[in-house]
Amino acid sequence: MPTTAPQTTDELYRALQENDRRPYGRTRTVTAEELVDAAEQFAEPLPLVRALLELQEAYTYGAEPRKSPVVFARLLTLFDEQPDIFDERLRHMLFWRFKWVAHALRQLPEIPLSSLRQWLTEMRDRYEKAGLGLQPYYGQAYQLAAHVGEDTTPAYELWAARTRTLLSDCEACETCERALYHLTAGDDERALRTWEPVLTGKESCQEEPARSVSYALLPLLRTGRADRARELHLAGYRGCRRNPSMAQEVGRHLEFCALTGNEARGLELLSENRNLFDEVDSPLDLLGFLTGVEVLLQRVEHLGHGELAAPGYAGRTWTVAGLRAEVRGRADDLAARFDARNGTTAHADRRRARLDRAPLLDALELTLRTRSLDDVAPAAAPVAAPVSATAGRAAATVPGELRELILHARKSEEQGHPDAPACWGRLRTLVAARDYTHPDDPAVGPLVQLRADLLADEANRAGEKDEFAEATDLYEEAAGLYDDAGLPGHAAVARGSALLASAEIPARGDDGAEATAAALTAAHASMVRLHEETPGLAPYQEARLLRLRATALGLRLQASRSEEHVAPVFAEADLLHAFATRHDVVGQISGALLLRASTHAISGDLPAAVTEIDALLDRLRAHGPAWHLPRTLGLRGRLQLGLRDAQAAHTDLSEGLRLAAEWPADTVDTSRLHGDLAEACMHLGRPDEALRHLTRSAEMELRRGSRTEAFCTYSNAAQLSLDLGRVEDCIALLDSLLAEPDVTTGELDDRLVAQLRLTRARALHAGDDLKAATAEFLALAAESAGWDDDPGSHAVIAAETAVLLGESGEFGRAREAAEQALAAHALEPRYEQLSNCLRELARLQGQQQGPDGLAGALAFLADAGRVAEEARAAGYEARGRSLDTALAYEHGRVNAYTGEYEDALTSLEKTLALLGEPGADQDHAAEWAECVRLAAVVEGLYLERPAPALTRLDAAVSRLTPLGHTDETEALVSLAARLRDEE
Predict the structure, then answer these.
(1) Between the CA atoms of 233, 239, 240 and 242, what dihedral angle is there, to the nearest 10 degrees?
(2) Quick check: 805 and 817 in contact, CB under 8 A?
(3) For residues 685 and 398, what is the distance between their CA atoms, to the nearest angstrom?
(4) Which of 209, 662, 668, 928 has its C-alpha lying 20 to 30 A from 347's C-alpha?
(5) pTM to 2 decimals?
(6) C-alpha to C-alpha distance for 149 and 160, rounded to whole angstroms
(7) How many other C-beta atoms can be found within 10 angstroms of the C-beta atom of residue 21?
(8) Which residues contact 150 (CB under 8 A, 6 or more apart)?
């Protein structure tokens, strides 16, 4: 909004132009209202006309239909009183907006039907008097008939059979209306054929294709085109989200989610569009939105999740069931008001048809982040894995009788059996209840022992999440309770676990690895003393202490990578193996052998590690424990990756994942298996499969509470999807992640969030949404300017921002962003990125502005030249062609764009010299051939010297053909033919 009211008409027009660049919404609307007030101070009426036109547009696309007709009435009065001030353009805008008023009146149930018909009569009379074709009038008459629920065939034929005029709705909007006519008639196929030009992007406007897409989703499903529906949902939803003027479209996307098994995504999108409950002023749009919301909520409640939290009207919290009841009441009332106005039951009937529609698919994977309703349950839900995570898995055995439950939990813990976590989880719930009564049974032991057991399990889970300080405290507390219960063996195991967890707390500083190794050495020595000083240990407890000792030394080797630390690990592992074999502690026999294999791997002897793993796998298959097989196969898969046998790795990891499904969800780290499978798939050239495994790995990490790791994995998945050209998948994934509560509240690491936003901005750019991409890049550039510890990243972000500004033609702002990038580059060089940015800016300015842009383009190239000199001095080598070669080529292009053809040819010949003659390398040959082609274009066409250009081309073809670069010669042969024809 302007800080002060415009004092001259020039200032007013500048303010109107500035406001026109704003997105539709309250800010633009309020500013437009203020500019109308300002325009009324001027004596001449033209400024007021222009301000009123801007205001009506703001009301129309800002979903405020009640105000649009009022503004138009003022415009019409001005036109009637002073028609001469309306030039051809303003006159066209005025008559165009008769349709806007007709549309606005249809949206308001308080406007009598007679008034709607009267307005159409006014429109017809005005058009006839002005000598304008009536096709737009008949279009509005048809839309009114469709709205009311009358027989639309006569009105449709009167409209569709007429020739379009300059005042007809755009091709895209009329295409949508024709398709909706066929859709209402029940002809999905014909509707989709009609829609095709819009759905493929050949026709578009302010509202299209987003409007057509929202209507086409269900017909696409009904005709078996689910993949196309998925694709259009992702792209179309992005075009209408959070937009009050497209609330009906949002409602149809919610309905689509509800009918394809994507209820969780539907709730996620509803949360993103919560503003629409309060910001939609159009009753008709609100009715469409609320009906879509109700379809979704009805489905969620039908699936038994009525008590889930739901985003709804501001001022209170809602459950799905509560919000559904509220929405149903409001939507029923709106439908009744429209039907009362229209004298039909059309809106109630249409609403009922949507609500009665059965799901069209049980499950359609819409996004890379497939989630169930259990996944969107409140964070305070039980820690146990959600149903979706355990679907298809064997359930843990959890006895119902308390005494048996306690004994089974302890036995499972001794064996390391997968039932243990579920049993402890159930016991934790029971013990926390006010009416809990502990069994009076010597076999069960006192309550203090059970509390110690639960603390030890909690500590174990904290350790699995790398929360080592918390784990240490919990183990120590558990040990104290075991002492109180008179169980020294249990206490010793808990204290040994505390020693290990404490040593694993990350050390800070440059000598972190050395400090960690020292801490683990000390922890091992303390464990040995603890072991020696604790009498009466049961075999499984002694084996646990031996395992802790061996693990401490294994972690020390992992931290130090010192050869002298290898032998002690083997010694402890062998000691554990011998003891476990003697006492038949099968889980620890497996643990000892796995530790030996890991030690071989860490020390660099991968073949020996595979040999050990193969022997262990044979033993596990023969003697168990079977639940160790998935983890062991996972290690073997990682070893095969190290040996560069991706196919063997894929086989092992896939088998591990299959076997993991036979056990409860927390038994095996399936996120690791999926992550390793993604790596194997990339090596095998199967990136789409890799993408699936990455997203599943991330979701598993989220379910385990490892949110930072999950977001890092998702970041990799987003980048891979972008690399694969799956732009909408990438954007949808990142939109979902960036809406997570710990992101919006700033709890997640800010640099990780910035990386997600950066990838999203790049995806928006790749998806041709230049405006949104530029806005995100500008925000990131401003934010990263404060990263004093990472100026290199700021250099890259500012450089990319500059390029996007250049694409938009804003070269002044592009220069400012480039200067920021250069300043950050001076602190932490990013030679190639900066050179690419500056050369691209030069190309864009030369191409867009021609000779007028030469000076600015050459300034960018001069900066790129200095970057190349710095890189040369630093010994930096670019990944592809050298920076000097790329710079010479860009000089050639820029000079060609700006008409400096001699300089262009000189630069291109320099480029060819730097490139050198082509050889077998195809990429190099392609670059060389393109440079030859451009040089020949400049020489033969622009400088009108065809003879040397033909000589150049023929020589190049003769050079490339024997080398097998036939594809590269096609453009050269074609250009040579053109030059000969012109001779």
Answers:
(1) 110
(2) yes
(3) 44
(4) 209
(5) 0.85
(6) 18
(7) 8
(8) 344
How do residues 312-336 score in pLDDT, each as one tens digit?
999 999 999 999 999 999 999 999 9
Q: With contact defined as beta carbons under 8 Å apart, do 330 and 297 qualify? A: no
Can you tell me the distance from the alpha carbon of 80 to that of 90, in angstroms, rounded to the nearest whole number?
Answer: 13
Q: Does a cis peptide bond (omega within 30 degrees of 0) precede residue 154?
A: no
Q: Which residues have CB under 8 Å from 386's CB, separation 6+?
A: 372, 374, 375, 377, 703
Residues 6+ apart with CB under 8 A from 666: 385, 418, 421, 704
d(CA 393, CA 526): 40
Name the region of 63 (left: φ>0; alpha: ψ -120 to 50; beta: rest): left
Cβ(90)–Cβ(61) under 8 Å? no
Contact between residue 587 and residue 416 where contact means Cβ atoms under 8 Å apart: yes
Q: Are strands 318-319 and 309-310 parallel, antiparallel or unpaired?
A: antiparallel
- CA–CA separation, 253 and 228 (whole Å): 14
Cis peptide before 625 (omega within 30 of 0): yes
Question: For 61-71, what is the mean pLDDT?
Answer: 93
Other C-beta atoms closer than 10 Å to the C-beta of 648 total 17
CA–CA dist 767, 880 (Å, integer): 26
Residue 864 one-letter amino acid: A
- Which residue matches tokens 């079977």? 626
Q: Which two tokens stand for residue 897?
A: 């764009």
pLDDT of residue 377: 63
Structure confidence at residue 375 (pLDDT): 77
Q: Considering Cα of 941, then 947, then 953, then 954, what sign does the dihedral take? A: positive
Instruction: List pLDDT tens digits, range 821-862.
Output: 999 999 999 999 999 999 999 999 999 999 999 999 999 999
Inter-residue contact 774 to 760 (CB < 8 Å)? no
- Helices 26-39 and 9-20 pack at an angle, to 10 degrees, of 160
